[in-house]
Design brief:
Blueprint lengths: L1 E2 L4 E5 L2 E3 L2 E10 L8 E11 H11 L14 E14 L10 E17 L2 E13 L2 E10 L2 E10 L8 E6 L3 H6 L4
Antiparallel strand pairs: 1-2, 2-4, 3-4, 4-5, 5-6, 6-7, 7-8, 8-9, 9-10, 10-11
Length: about 180
């Protein structure tokens, strides 16, 4: 911890958040007497993606979207960096808080991505910024390789997410759905 007369900062060398190991972090208050300066919280960690997803759901940041979200369907390893900025006031509105999360998921999986088909071997880039969560990557959906982008605005009162995906679909894949 460092007290700079009118400011304060704390450096974290290691720690844990919700079962997720943190490799570094910090909390910085530039000036105590300023309504213009913003508190900054920074953390970096790596671990099982299911733990990161549990923390995301339990944080409340997903609002209505978190009610139907099952973090237990996710697997793989993740590396994430988190930043939060907020004004130093007695009352802070949620729209005045800026959160940014960036990271990657390796060997990612999603159980029942489609009924009866799991996504496996996923490599995914994660970005949470301005209340929008974007997952971009690729993996195997059953026997079919797939590339995808999943977007969800977290402040949209539970409106459905937007998923775009492309894949080569073989006759065997279509047979699973009774199409061929």
């Amino acid at each position: 911890a460092r007290l700079t007369g009118n400011g304060f900062s704390v450096q974290l060398n290691s720690g844990e958040y919700g079962g997720w190991p943190l490799s570094e972090g910090s909390v910085t208050i530039p000036r105590f007497d300023s309504r213009e300066d913003r508190l900054r919280v920074y953390a970096k960690g790596a671990g099982p993606v299911v733990d990161a997803m549990r923390n995301l759901v339990n944080s409340g940041i997903m609002g209505e979207d978190g009610n139907d979200f099952d973090p237990e369907r996710f697997s793989g390893d993740a590396s994430m960096t988190f930043e939060l900025f907020m004004p130093l006031r007695n009352r802070v509105k949620s729209e005045d808080i800026d959160i940014k999360l960036t990271g990657t998921v390796t060997d990612g999986g999603l159980t029942d991505a489609l009924p009866g088909l799991d996504l496996v071997g996923g490599q995914v880039d994660v970005l949470l910024s301005e209340n929008r969560l974007v997952l971009t990557g690729f993996g195997d959906l059953g026997p079919a390789p797939v590339q995808f982008t999943w977007r969800d605005d977290l402040d949209d009162d539970g409106a459905p997410a937007n998923l775009s995906a492309s894949s080569f679909i073989s006759p065997d894949f279509l047979n699973r759905f009774g199409i061929v």
